[in-house]
Write a structure and sequence with these properties.
- A hairpin with a 2-residue loop joins strand 1 and strand 2.
- This protein has a two-stranded antiparallel ribbon with strand order 1-2.
- The chain starts with a helix and ends in an 8-residue tail after the last helix.
- The protein has three helices and two strands, in the order ααββα.
- With about 110 residues, the chain is mainly α.
Length: about 110
């Protein structure tokens, strides 16, 4: 099996996982979020109490089209955001592989 065939197979599996299984992911905070929110209660999307998360600020890219695993804030499009993320990642990967292969000196046989 060639490297290209392997990468296309892996990309296909990643797209399937991102596009289908992402809808099964929990909406509960992950370990880091849960840890930073200890000592606080969320009331109407506001943190009350004392916890590390109260000093958190919005990220510079929080308003970007794919922020928070959504497409323009639409929570029903989680799978699409995942597929777009996988596609962008593999596009960069393929570009880097092509660049590295093009820069590699050719191995011609001396004969």
């Amino acid at each position: 099996m060639s490297l290209t065939a392997f990468l296309f197979g892996f990309a296909g599996a990643a797209v399937l996982v991102a596009g289908v299984l992402s809808y099964l992911a929990s909406a509960q905070p992950d370990g880091l979020d849960a840890t930073t929110q200890r000592g606080c209660t969320v009331v109407a999307d506001e943190l009350e109490g004392e916890c590390i998360a109260q000093s958190a600020e919005e990220h510079e890219l929080a308003d970007s089209p794919l922020a928070d695993y959504t497409v323009d804030g639409n929570d029903t499009m989680t799978g699409i955001a995942g597929v777009l993320g996988v596609a962008a990642t593999f596009a960069v990967l393929f570009a880097l592989v092509r660049l590295l292969l093009a820069a590699r000196p050719s191995r011609s046989r001396a004969g």
